[in-house]
Amino acid sequence: MRRLLPTVLLLNLGGCSLIMPSHDPDQAWVDLDQPDKHALQAASVDRQPLEDDRYFQVTPGSHELEVRFSFDVDGHDIGPQREAMTRTCLLKLDYPAFSAGQRYELKAGGIGFRPWARLYTDDNREVARARESRCGDV
Questions:
Q1: Nearest to 59 by CA among 69, 70, 74, 48
Q2: How many domains does the chain have?
Q3: I need a surface site. Which of 25, 38, 45, 103 has the fewest CB within 10 A?
Q4: Which residues contact 64 (CB under 8 A, 6 or more apart)?
């Protein structure tokens, strides 16, 4: 029984990290869309690294968001008889009008070797597009 209690406590603490924090109504919230076979992670806000890579929560106003995006590139996009590969890129998105209490969604994908990401409001209106910062070992 003495061994079981610490194990249960550790498992409970690990499970807490899976729970998203509550949304602060005085800030804007940015959800990250997780497409199949891709990984989209929040990296920084205004060049300051984030502790949690699952979302952004920012004050109203202008911010630069940076995300790390890994996606598959088909072999036919690379060259004849080549195998598919995974490409990882940093993308930066500037948006001047984040609103308190507003929820946004950042969606990403890839076309051939080129990644893309777009920011949408909760009514599915596109408000910003990301630019490719760098790709490779990021």
A1: 48
A2: 1
A3: 25
A4: 45, 46, 47, 92, 93, 94
